[in-house]
Amino acid sequence: MKRFVLILLLLVATLPSMAQQGITLEECYRLVAQNYPLAQQVQLFEAQHQLDSEVVSNEKRPQFNLNAQATYQSDVIEIPIPNSTIEGLNKDQYRATLSVNQLIYNGGATDAHLNLKTVQTKAKQKQVEVQLYQLKQQINQLYFSILLSQESHVLLEAKRSLLQSKLSEVQSGIKYGVILPSSDKVLEAELLKLKQQFQELNRNKEVLIETLSSLINQPIDTTTLFQHPLVETQSDNSLHRPELELFQLKQEEIEHSETLLLKQNSPKLLGFATGGYGNPGLNMLDNSFQPFYTVGVALHWKVFDWNSNKKQRESLLINKDLIETETTTFMLHTNIELMQQQQEMGIIEGFIVSDLEIINLRKEVLKSADSQLKNGVITASAYITELTNLYEDENTLVKHKIQLQLAKANYNVIKGH
Length: 417
Fold this sequence. Notes:
By secondary structure, the chain is an alpha+beta fold. It has a single domain (26-73, 89-415), classed as Outer membrane efflux proteins (OEP) (Up-down Bundle). It has 9 helices and 6 strands, in the order H-E-H-H-E-E-H-H-H-E-H-E-E-H-H. It has a 4-stranded antiparallel sheet with strand order 2-3-5-6, with no helix packed on it. A two-stranded parallel ribbon has the order 1-4. The chain is elongated and about 150 Å long.
C-alpha cells in the first residue's frame, strides 16, 4: 500500500512537466508586440518626450546669464574743461554682471510648442505600433505553416499505422499462400519511405518553429502543441488599422505646427534685471570700482518678416493635402486586399466541398482494394497506390482548411481586427 501511495505521489509531482505545452495565435501576436526589439522604442520615445518637454518648459523660468570682461582701449573720453578736477577714465576697464530675464508673455508660444512635442511623440509611437502590426501577417504565415506540419504528421501517423496493420495481414496471407510472395516487401519499402517523409516533415517544422521563436523572442519546444484558432471574420465595412490613426496624428501635428507659427508672430514681453560690479560703473565720471544694477521690461515684436511665416503655413497646408492623399491611397489598396482575400476564401471553401466528395470516393475505392488484396486479386503495389491517393487527398483537405483559416486571419489583420 505504501509503495502504491509513493508511485501515485510521483505521478502527481511529474504531471505538470508531462503535460504538453501549448501556444495560441493570439499569444504570438502579443509576444511579438511585446518582445520584438522595435517595441522598446515606445518607451524610448516617451523618455525623450519628457526631456524635450522639460527643455521647452524652461522657457517660462528665469534665465540667468553671467558675464565678465576686462578690456584695454587705446583712448577714452576726456572732459574738455580747462583746470577741471574730473579725472579721465582709465584705459583698462573691468566689468562683471549677472542678468536675469523672465518671460512674461509670448502669446502662448511655449504651450503651443509643448502641444506640438506631445503630438509628435504620439506619432512616433504610433509609427512603431504600425511596424509591429505589420508583423502579424508574417506571424500568420509561420503559425499556420506549423499547424499544417502538425496535421500532416497526424495523417502520416495514421497512414503508418494502417500500413503496419496491413503488413501483418499480408505476411499472414503469404504464410497461408493466399497472397503472392514479396507483397510484404512492397509494404516494408513504403514504410521506409514514410520514415523519410517524417524526417523531412519534422525538419521543416523545426525551421518554422525556430523562425517563429526568434520573431516573438520566446523559446518554443518542438513538442509544443499549436492550438487551432477559431477565426471568424467581421462583417462590418469599417477599417480599424493603426495606419489610419497615424495619418490622423500627422494631421494633428500639422495643425499644432500651424498654431505654433501663428504664436511665434505674437509680441514677447520680458522682465529683466542686471546687477554688476566694475570700473567704471554706470556713473562714467566716477573712475573707481562701483556696484550697479538696472531693472526694466522689454518688448520684442517682429512686425514684418517678408511673409516668411505665412509661406511656412501655406507649406504646412500642402503637407496636409499630401497626408490626405496618402490616407485615400492606403484605404484604396486595403479595400482591394480585402476583396482579394474574400475571393480567396470563397475559392478555398469551394475546394473543401469537393475535397470531401473526393475523399469519400477514395475511401470506397480503398475499401474495395483492401478486399481484393486480401483475396490475392491485386498486388500490394496497387493497394499502396490507392492508399497514397487517399492520403494525398486527405492532406489536401487539411491544407485547404488551414489555408482558409490563414486567409481569414489575414483578412482580419488587413481589416484591423
